[in-house]
Write a structure and sequence with these properties.
By secondary structure, this protein is an alpha/beta fold. The chain has helices spanning 16-25, 39-44, 83-91, 178-189, 198-213, 226-239, 257-265, 281-288, 294-316, 328-333, 370-379, 384-387, 407-434, 490-503; strands spanning 6-10, 30-34, 49-52, 78-81, 95-111, 124-137, 143-147, 155-158, 163-166, 218-222, 243-249, 274-279, 321-323, 360-362, 446-460, 463-476, 484-485, 507-513. The chain starts with 5 loop residues before the first strand and ends in a 12-residue tail after the last strand.
Length: 525
């Protein structure tokens, strides 16, 4: 673990995880804390720098998210972004007011290249603005170091005090020099050396796991996804024979996935894991019978998982630790890290029953973003096709079947999903073949079929049908926090539709889900 920490204080803005990821890309470790966190807690973390994120409030309103003025006199450099910059101004005696028009979108920006924040940044560049309020008077000691046509203070500094504010969003890709600005802050102004690297992470974690585990026995919850696979291989490299991986086939996996997981991690695979497959399909279907409320379904699946592991642990004998592949966005989205509302209870964070039979839970990837997990996977020598596999949620097809889950519906969605993924994969491969290996513009980051709970009338041969409708979905996203529908070519969708209605029994209609996130989520439940 890096000794250097930058604290990202979360005021509830939509790009807050992105800020943290960009900082990590500068090889600087950072963690997200809510603005409600006590200042003494922050102080004891001994951060090398603090970043205040954007947020939805207006800082001059009574109930606005705020911070103590002492935050700015701790001798630690502070960078405020958007709301963070306004709040810094407001708290330190400047003035923030509402503009007549919202400034939104890509905007031309002129910067003062003599500011350390803009080292190596061209004097004119562009930035992404999204604000109603603006800084109408600087706080004492501050000077303006950037402007746009509409915004006289697009950035400000009090270099002597180590305080910087940026009105725009350097973390988004629409601010092309944004990462450089963040890098200037964390590396040059805060003086972080940039020791957060995945090769070091692997080495240090293997050591830390060995120290923590000692001669104890470890049980790993292998779900077959990227996160739990990377966690399992990391653990197996650290403690070898002391690790037992239990793979629960909950009957909510993609078509043939159980056998594929076994082929990779089982005794015939390349890794030396002690691998146990539990075929618990019926148990899960029984528990899910009659349940249609999405959060309840997630909870049931999560709890049943734990129960199965508990039972396996008892068979194995005393087990000291349970491993889970939780990653940082799960932690933040479950409302445990920053200021995000609980969007969904991710089963591997929120849904743990309080009577788990293990001494301790180990979550070796808990502090990592997905791209960092993938880098760790490559460092560990896991093949690329596994490392770059599209994400699959812990509750599996349970949250891709709207309403009650039954074995029959699982089979429908598995078959439809296999057809859809096969056709999309072939179209991607074909495009790459004819375009020198390049990805198509419509390249989705996640694509799957789901079963709507809707039945409708159709005609098949001379017969009337009354069957289910499948929704196919494909999204483009950088971080899964926001996403938009990918434009899968029409002819591919036509083939998919034809094959699904002809090959999947019980399905007579196919929808394409166009919804972006927000307001939708990637999964349907
Ligand atoms: P949503 O539906 O929240 O999905 O927009 C964002 C990403 O997270 C995955 N996802 C989950 N992963 N447990 C997981 O491990 C879950 O409960 C869960 N719910 C959603 C989803 O597949 C997408 O990649």
């Amino acid at each position: 673990m890096s000794k250097e920490l930058v604290v990202v204080i979360d005021f509830g803005g939509q790009y807050n995880q992105l800020v943290a990821r960009r900082v990590r890309e500068c090889n600087v470790y950072c963690e997200i804390y809510s603005y409600k966190t006590d200042l003494n807690v922050i102080r004891e973390l001994h951060p090398k720098g603090i970043i205040l994120t954007g947020g939805p409030s207006s800082c001059y309103e009574e109930d606005a998210a705020t911070c103590s003025p002492e935050l700015f006199s701790m001798g630690v450099p502070v960078l405020g972004l958007c709301y963070g910059a306004q709040l810094m101004t407001h708290v330190l005696g400047g003035k923030v007011e509402r503009a007549t028009n919202r400034e939104y979108g890509r905007t031309e920006l002129t910067v003062d290249p003599s500011s350390p924040l803009f080292a190596d940044v061209p004097e004119t560049t562009s930035c992404w603005m999204s604000h109603f309020d603006y800084i109408s008077r600087l706080a004492p000691g501050f000077t303006s170091i950037a402007h746009t046509d509409n915004c006289p203070v697009a950035a400000a500094e009090n270099a002597e005090a180590g305080l910087y504010g940026i009105q725009f969003h350097p973390e988004v890709l629409h601010t092309p020099e944004g990462t450089k600005m963040l890098r200037n802050f964390v590396r040059n102004i805060c003086g972080c050396s940039g020791d957060w690297r995945m090769d070091a992470f692997v080495e240090e974690n293997i050591k830390a796991i060995r120290e923590k585990v000692g001669t104890g026995k470890v049980l790993c919850a292998l779900a077959g996804g990227v996160d739990s696979s990377v966690a399992a291989v990391l653990l197996s490299k650290a403690i070898g024979e002391q690790l037992t991986c239990v793979f629960v086939d909950h009957g909510l996996l993609r078509k043939d996935e159980g056998d594929e997981v076994e082929a990779v991690f089982g005794p015939k695979g390349p890794y030396k894991l002690h691998f146990i497959r539990v075929n618990a399909q019926k148990r899960f279907y029984d528990k899910l019978a009659g349940v249609s409320e999405p959060e309840q379904k997630r909870k049931i699946i999560g709890e049943e998982f734990i129960r199965v592991f508990e039972e396996e642990a008892k068979k194995i004998g005393a087990v000291d630790f349970l491993v889970q592949g939780t990653i940082y966005p799960d932690v933040v989205e479950s409302g445990l890290g920053g200021e995000s509302a609980v969007i969904k209870s991710h089963h591997n964070v929120g849904g743990l029953p309080d009577y788990v039979d293990f001494k301790e839970i180990i979550e070796p990837l808990r502090n990592l973003f997905k791209d960092e997990v993938r880098k760790v996977g490559l460092e560990l020598g896991i093949p690329e096709y596994l490392v770059f596999r599209q994400p699959f949620p812990g509750p599996g097809l349970g949250i891709r079947i709207i309403g009650e889950v039954t074995e029959e519906k699982v089979k429908m969605v598995q078959d439809a999903d296999a057809i859809y993924r096969q056709e999309v994969d072939e179209a991607i491969a074909e495009f790459r073949k004819t375009h020198g290996g390049a990805d198509p513009d419509w390249m989705p980051n996640q694509y799957f079929a789901a079963l709507t709970n809707m039945r409708s009338v159709g005609v098949m041969g001379d017969e009337r049908t009354y069957d289910y409708a499948v929704a196919v979905r494909a999204v483009k996203t950088l971080d899964f926090m926001t996403a938009e529908a990918a434009q899968i070519p029409w002819d591919v969708l036509q083939t998919v539709m034809n094959r699904i209605v002809n090959e999947v029994r019980g399905v007579n209609r196919v929808f394409y889900d166009l919804t972006s996130k927000p307001p939708g989520t990637v999964e349907l439940e």
